[in-house]
Every structure is written in C-alpha cells, then in structure tokens.
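pinging the channel bc i need a second pair of eyes. not urgent but kinda urgent?? the chain im working w is below, pasted from the shared doc
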Amino acid sequence: MRILFIGSVSLSASLLTELINMNKNIIGVFTKNESNFNSDFCNLKNIANKAKIPTYMTQNINGKEEIKIIKELSPDIIFCF
C-alpha cells in the first residue's frame, strides 16, 4: 500500500515514526516549515529525511502544485494527522 503522509504537529511526528518503524511504504510526506497557530507544531522533514522519504514543504495542501504532486505520487491512501 502506497501511503502519503500529511502532518505538522507532535502527534504527526509520533505516528510517522511508528509507520516508519513498521516498514510501511510511505511514498511522501507533506509538512510545514512553520506554523503560527499550532502550539505543538513539528516539522516532519528530519524524520522523513532520515528514513529517505521524499518531503514536500507546503503552507497550502490544496494548492495547485501540491495537488499535482499528489496525483503524480498516486497514493493508495492519504493519512493527514
């Protein structure tokens, strides 16, 4: 199963780490560089990079470029935590 992961909070980091530890097929991670409204903000780039998972930085997951990338990745499932 091809998993696309979206997240930018501490729960996202924990769940991404768990999926990596379970050797799941994570084909990409979308995260943010910063957030002004999440008190538990967490950039997932370092976690994804250590696992050699492509990382995409975004402030708008519904943007045209983001949608294009998602279509190209062709995930079976998208997790947004």
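so The longest strand covers residues 26-31. and The mean pLDDT is 95. — does that match what u expected or am i reading it wrong
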